[in-house]
Amino acid sequence: MPTRTAEMNGGQGALLDRLSIPEPRPGPVPKISGMKAVASYNWKEGKNPVIIVPGSPPHWKPTQLPFTVGDDTDPEYINLNGAKSPSSAFEPLLRALQLTSPTYPLHQVDIVTDRNNLRKLLRWLSRAHDLTPFRIDAELAGKGTVLLTRREERDVDLEARFRGFGHNFAKSYDFGNLAMLVRSHIDAMDAPPGPAAVEDLTLRFEDLSVNLTAFSNPPSQLSYIKTGPPVVEAWKLMEIKTRAEWKRDSLDWDEIYPQLLLSGTPMLVLGLHQRGTFGTIEQIHVTEIAKKQSKTAEEAMKGLKAVLAEMKTGRKLAFVCDEQGEMKVYERTVVDPKRELAKELLERFWAPEEEGDGESEEEEGEESEDGADTSEFEEMVRREKAKCFE
């Protein structure tokens, strides 16, 4: 198993810079607008890397209370895409995007990232007292798109008692004047009443063996099965959390709200238990959680946009945050080919007329203009149709 030093500090060259937390400044929090679901997939269980596109999150089925949940003895995936993908952790995202949104304009995106990276940056910006060291690698794709890749001490925790394959969901949106493509893990989706709420319609992906297709152009070790409903509507998505009942009043809303906001998840399902027996389940809308956000969290969202703009560079860099909250920027001198995207996938980030022109200068940031169907995330989720428990 890789050590923290090998995994978190490997391949670093010269120290180039140190990032400082931006000072508080007047003005509104940058808005998230134009949110749109563009791709989704599940990982199929097994040794061979196979994704199910578009796949489906598990359907949420209200359960008669109380009920007891036992321990899960399977290992926990800390970074499922990093553990399962045969090359870059972004390969399954780009392959799923190719199948579900083949005309999606990757060349217009500023930042491609996992939500996990954004949450780590927000903890740093908030000067969280329990900050865990982290590393994010940056790489230019096309003329002006930057891929932010999460790096973990290890991708699988063999000692944990929970394992979640979940559902990978990618959304595009504008954050201020930055065009974002953000992948996140989705726990569940709201299911309509009737048979769908009685039967588990998550699809028995582990039993699928037909229609297995290898990706080509370029060839890959990754294969796919195309099955499942269309990409799930945003208003149906749910984040599930569990807490001991006595910890209910100490929930960190500054941590929870950005998790929902940055992935466009409108509903939190909170299960409260006593020693594993659940007696209460709450369903809380993101607009209610927004009211609990502190001024510190609001300033962190302002700082996030500024830091992302600084990370948007044309060099291969490693952003490393230590236990003291110091963010150092290193040149990446040693590149692991097993972590790299194939050249043909990187070429998809070029505009059609720019392919192969060899240009690498960073595109000047221009404020994006919302189309007629663009609306603020907050307005979208107010109109959502998620139902409360009866």
Largest sheet features: 12 strands, mixed
Query: How many beta strands in the DSSP annotation?
Result: 20
| Total tally of structural domains | 1
Distance between the termini: 47 Å
Unreliable stretches, pLDDT < 50, 5 or more residues?
1-6, 160-164, 195-206, 358-390
Structural class: alpha+beta
Global shape? globular
> Which sequence of strands runs across the widest sheet?
1-20-19-8-9-7-12-11-2-3-15-14
Proportion of residues in extended strands: 25-35%
User: Nearest-angstrom radius of gyration?
Assistant: 21 Å
What is the element string, with H for helices and E for strands? HEEEEEEHHEHEEEEEEHEEEHEEHHEEHH
Mean pLDDT: 79
Helix content: 10-25%
Count of helical segments? 10
Task: Tell me about this structure.
Strands 1-20-19-8-9-7-12-11-2-3-15-14 form a twelve-stranded mixed sheet. It has one domain. With 390 residues, it is of the alpha+beta class. The longest helix has 17 residues. A hairpin with a 3-residue loop joins strand 8 and strand 9. Helix content is 20%, strand content 30%.
